[in-house]
């Protein structure tokens, strides 16, 4: 007779321990300085288990002791804080005209921030070679500081499936490109994970962990690059959709009689409120930064034509924000990329537009990102740190290693 068991199976001891190590590490990150007793009282783990887990984390140099505190009932307690001094997480953003790289420590402290010009779109192999050269320099710098790389996550402006394959990145000319695998080969199997995700998704993770609304359970990040994409955090988790293609807000049609869009339709959000709408033409990637700076100068000087364009773009953007606010009811919508320097002129029109379109009481808060152009790369580092929080621990056995 053949039988099958569909109920829950007994958990492997190593898996349970890895889970508990991650629970303790997250608690220290969120509540440091804290004591072993604090951890036991808040997590429900018994004191002996907490002591064993903390000893393990100290051995891995993920946590360290930092003296005693007497500001409590009973005996003084030895306090714990994050260590992580031997480790680094790397995030990289590949865009049409630049590559940016960020390295952070375990607590999110910046160790390195680089931005390099990049002429993307020649071929996948050439683009990967150029990006790999930047990554090797970052890894080399961290090696000089005697830091082990926890992982690398790369942000790409395009459709990235749940396996990390870039299915379509129109501004880079990529289709069905295994950028993760290609980078790992170009780096000669570096000994750490190489992940790839959509730029808006990773920027949303950066905002949730490091931004002005860090800790928000429900937020949406809008890219302000050549395209307009959305990274969506709901109930504290990044939402990618069934195949990984969520967030293509730029091609939501707002006006069937509106301006033509690159996708072939008319009146998409991107055509009405993207950077091309600001500049009144399809921009050259190499010239966007200079042209946006000129728009900012004109707006500061009070030039009527520029102010009129920015108000129109702000209203189009407000209509798009209202769609996502009514659909998802986020706590905040964060404008990133080139929207950041234009925010003083865009935000009044955005807020005015959504005031009459968002149905939820209290409306929807809309702000400019404090992370600016570093958001997607910083989000790559955040994704690596999230994997550590989930149990992928360096320096010993864990359930994901």
TrEMBL record:
<dbReference type="InterPro" id="IPR036390">
    <property type="entry name" value="WH_DNA-bd_sf"/>
</dbReference>
<dbReference type="InterPro" id="IPR000600">
    <property type="entry name" value="ROK"/>
</dbReference>
<comment type="similarity">
    <text>Belongs to the ROK (NagC/XylR) family.</text>
</comment>
<dbReference type="InterPro" id="IPR043129">
    <property type="entry name" value="ATPase_NBD"/>
</dbReference>
<dbReference type="InterPro" id="IPR036388">
    <property type="entry name" value="WH-like_DNA-bd_sf"/>
</dbReference>
<protein>
    <submittedName>
        <fullName>ROK family protein</fullName>
    </submittedName>
</protein>
<dbReference type="Pfam" id="PF12802">
    <property type="entry name" value="MarR_2"/>
</dbReference>
<feature type="domain" description="HTH marR-type">
    <location>
        <begin position="24"/>
        <end position="65"/>
    </location>
</feature>
<dbReference type="Pfam" id="PF00480">
    <property type="entry name" value="ROK"/>
</dbReference>
<dbReference type="InterPro" id="IPR000835">
    <property type="entry name" value="HTH_MarR-typ"/>
</dbReference>
């Amino acid at each position: 007779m053949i039988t099958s068991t569909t109920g829950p199976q007994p958990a492997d001891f190593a898996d349970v321990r890895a889970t508990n190590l991650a629970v303790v590490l997250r608690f220290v990150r969120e509540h440091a300085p804290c004591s072993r007793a604090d951890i036991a009282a808040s997590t429900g783990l018994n004191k002996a288990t907490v002591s064993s887990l903390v000893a393990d984390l100290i051995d891995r140099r993920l946590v360290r002791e930092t003296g005693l505190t007497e500001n409590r009932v009973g005996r003084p307690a030895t306090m714990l804080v994050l260590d992580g001094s031997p480790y680094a997480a790397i995030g990289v953003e590949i865009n049409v005209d630049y590559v940016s790289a960020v390295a952070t420590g375990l607590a999110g402290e910046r160790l390195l921030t680089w931005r390099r010009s990049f002429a993307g779109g020649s071929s996948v192999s050439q683009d990967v070679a150029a990006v790999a050269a930047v990554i090797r320099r970052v890894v080399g710098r961290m090696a000089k500081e005697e830091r082990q790389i926890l992982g690398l996550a790369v942000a790409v402006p395009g459709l990235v499936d749940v396996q990390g394959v870039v299915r379509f990145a129109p501004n880079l000319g990529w289709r069905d490109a295994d950028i993760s695998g290609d980078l790992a080969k170009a780096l000669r199997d570096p000994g750490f994970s190489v992940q790839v995700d959509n730029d808006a998704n990773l920027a949303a993770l950066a905002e949730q962990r490091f931004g002005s609304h860090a800790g928000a359970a429900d937020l949406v990040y809008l890219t302000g690059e050549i395209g307009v994409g959305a990274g969506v955090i709901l109930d504290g988790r990044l939402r990618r959709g069934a195949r990984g293609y969520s967030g293509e807000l730029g091609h939501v049609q707002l006006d069937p009689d509106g301006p033509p869009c690159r996708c072939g339709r008319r009146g998409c959000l991107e055509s009405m409120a993207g950077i091309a709408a600001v500049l009144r033409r399809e921009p050259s990637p190499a010239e966007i930064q200079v042209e946006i700076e000129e728009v900012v100068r004109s707006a500061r000087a009070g030039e009527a034509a520029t102010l009129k364009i920015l108000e129109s773009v702000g209203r189009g953007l407000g209509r798009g924000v209202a769609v996502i606010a009514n659909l998802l009811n986020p706590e905040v919508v964060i404008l990133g990329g080139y929207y950041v320097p234009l925010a003083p002129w865009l935000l009044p029109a955005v807020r005015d537009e959504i005031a009459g379109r968002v149905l939820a009481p209290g409306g929807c808060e809309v702000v400019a990102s404090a992370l600016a152009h570093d958001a997607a790369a910083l989000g790559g580092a955040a994704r690596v740190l999230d994997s550590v929080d989930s149990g992928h621990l360096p320096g010993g056995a864990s359930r994901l290693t």
